[in-house]
Amino acid sequence: MGQTIAEKLFSKNNIHGQPAYAGDVIEARIDGAMMHYHASEPMHDMAQQAGFKNGLPRVWDPERIFVLLDHHQPTLSQKQADENALVRSEVERLGIRCFHDSEPGIAHQMMADYGLMRPGELVVGNDSHTISYGALNVGGTGITRADMFYVLLFGELWFQVPESIRITLNGTQPNYPIAKDIILYLAGQYGDDFASGKSIEYTGSLVPQMSIDSRMCLSAHGVEVGAKLAMFPYDERTRDYVQKRTDRGYEPIVADADAKYVREITVDVDSMPFVVAKPHQFGNVSPIDEVRGQRIHQAQIGSCANGRFEDIEIAARVLKGRKVAKGVRFLISPASQKVYLECMKAGLIETLLEAGAQVITPGCGICQPKVGFLSNKEVCITSTTRNFKGRKGSLDAEIYLAGPLSVAAAALAGEIVNPKELVNAL
């Protein structure tokens, strides 16, 4: 009986050595564990609650635990500074080898930047967007802090093998990023819970054309449609990306031709319109023309969904020789220091600053109420991950989600516009 990528992943990691299929409950070996600023809880606070008065007595493998203090770089409060100090002392005491402390950035992007996960591995993290690792044929999934406490001690965890949905993306990659439009289109057509508890597998003629940046956007947003995994096949792009960042061996996972899927969806991206998610839900999606003319006060590009080179590059292309509209705050946050440096070397940062954009520290702040707060009745269009009430401060503000091209076009116009008018000039 053929297996999906998810079934093969859990079969490979099943500690009992038996094939695993959708619905099976198994104990799985963990290949890697990622923790960010919440690391102090499973390493110390929960350990004390469990009776270890000095914190965790040990970790299962100090080479397979990755601690990256994102979200709060630089720290924004005394409380966070004290928690980071605790993490530093615990990392040293436990002998954890991989620790990125004072480097701003998003943990998920840094995991990719430094080659810390490889195709075919099962990697867990105490953040829902750990699912983004599926772009590299990695089984990335978010877990609770209590589960992470167990993983740190034993290097294993129970899972129910998810059913799989195959999404076939057919068409041609245009000269601008479209991954955000694809996932928003899917959420609008099928609901933002269409993959609830399931594994997504992406395939189709578009996939080999897609950059790793675009694949990470789609995989990251798997959680916004309820998925446990969001996997891409291993191909030449994956191989080139991974081999530039690590010399460690790996075993990619490929679905069998006769694998069984609970649902199959096909999207013709060539006929797909530009779309937005209107306030206040990821699945509240409409063609962008339906909200055309909506005045904006703030525009944003960043986050683990759209803070990568191609997202920032399209903004620079749109704004080159032009100016951000009067009254609009255009915030751009690279996903990591490595992405920031790549953008600087390409001249993108200079172009953006000359156009009146604000480039802020790499990290998660642009996606949360940490930086760029909105006031009452203000409107923001953003390529970040979520648009629920209060995500950027005021409960009376409105947040529209869109692709980076649509965001940049709105920043230029001062209102939401259909960016197709810019496409021929790009």
Could you walk me through the main structural features you see in this protein, from its secondary elements to its overall organization?
It is a single chain. This protein has helices at 5-13, 40-49, 78-94, 107-113, 145-154, 179-190, 212-220, 236-243, 303-306, 309-319, 337-345, 348-355, 404-413, 420-423; strands at residues 25-29, 32-35, 65-68, 98-100, 122-125, 139-142, 156-160, 164-170, 199-203, 229-231, 263-268, 275-277, 285-287, 298-301, 329-332, 358-359, 379-382, 398-401. With 426 residues, it is of the alpha/beta class. It has two domains: 5-267, Aconitase, domain 3 (2-Layer Sandwich), CATH 3.30.499; 276-423, Aconitase, domain 3. The protein has a five-stranded parallel sheet, sandwiched between helices. A five-stranded parallel sheet has the order 16-15-14-17-18, with helices on one face. Strands 10-9-8-11 form a four-stranded parallel sheet, covered by helices on one side. Helix 2 packs across helix 5 (145-154) and helix 6 runs parallel beside helix 7 (212-220). The model has no long low-confidence stretch (mean pLDDT 95).
